[in-house]
């Protein structure tokens, strides 16, 4: 054979390039699969992309050590959270956004280490999915009372798995999606392995197939839990979106303009009711911060609200900023057309760096300007807020609270027949934040089988049925009102009854898988040393 016909070995630079590519491929795949998970979230309706996202993540982590899992998990977290949370820097710049993502991605990194550790165990998709839920549980609690934004469940408002929210809340819904994704990878892996070796382990194949099938079958079986039928009659509710001035006003004038806009839209609705164009509501819901001027301390603000309430002639829930005993509260005020303010609810889950400033002295030492963003901390409420509005029990969940399982459930267990999520998203302009939060409210509607209304200062305001369907919604940065007859319900879903128990069970499963993996590793090292 001529020398020219012989296969020549690759040159050294080409070999180094190939090795570098092989090293970089898992890192790139981890980051891109995180981006894929982000794309599955609202405002897009591509919920199903969460499955290939976790399938690729499972492929990247399989058989790796915990240190590699930690790094790859961090890259997955960055790919997911950087675009998901970009709205946090809309007004204050990229610093807080990047800092938040850098911290939150640590939890995903720890999950990556855990998933890598259990990746060779029998039934690995189950252990891996439980570890993901455990990571979300930790992220929802620490630091600074947690930040659950980006739970996998919140990307599934349009998906086939949504009924599982009524079974065990966001932990069970998220577990099902992640299990199906990791199971999908196992199915593909075993199929490729079987084609190559002509041998397929039946037990492994059964677990892989069940990991995909059980979540889907479970979601179908849970469909009867989802209903929009009235159990306690119906009420006609009005949601007011007054809009906000976009620019050009100093702080106090801006606050007064927002209040005036909501009063004006309510009075416009009252005129339409009087003219017979719109059905008269039984009560009206205003958004969070619709009156940043304390109506208990400012007679002019009180007069504006009182006039609007009397014009419509029914109770209004007003979102106000109230100072009491030297403390600030983000408060919902039940305002009666005859009696005036008769009840209040103080927001319990207040937002760090938005409504209070953790580590104030340390942050001030770094940069005085940063502390001016939150010049006075808000105080927390201590009790659930359920208003009796014309005989209907309306549970209040103020904006950021909608992301926290306990904050929504407490209103339902306290007797709420429907839920209102008054919010103020104006700070975040036309970002995806408002759509992400709207999806949360849709998941909560199914989780607890309650009508959910979302009055927002600048949009998107909406009315959501107990089955998660949006029946009416507004545009963004427009003044508008929504009026609709909605069902009242009092039965409790399994998710409402079980509360935190499904999450605890999944965390224990995660701990069991990690314990098994660690024990197997120790025994393997001992055997190797003999």
Describe the structure.
By secondary structure, this protein is an alpha/beta fold. It folds into three domains: 25-225 and 500-529, no CATH class; 234-348 and 384-495, Carbon-nitrogen hydrolase (Nitrilase/N-carbamoyl-D-aminoacid amidohydrolase); 349-382, no CATH class. It has helices spanning 12-39, 50-61, 66-84, 94-118, 124-139, 165-197, 202-221, 251-274, 299-312, 360-366, 368-371, 405-413, 433-448, 494-498, 501-529; strands at residues 234-241, 283-285, 316-324, 327-336, 340-346, 386-389, 392-396, 418-420, 451-454, 462-464, 470-473, 480-487. The strands form two sheets. Strands 5-4-3-2-1-12 form a six-stranded mixed β-sheet. It has a six-stranded mixed β-sheet with strand order 6-7-8-9-10-11, with helices on one face. Helix 5 crosses helix 6, helix 5 crosses helix 15 and helix 6 runs antiparallel to helix 7. The two termini are 50 Å apart.
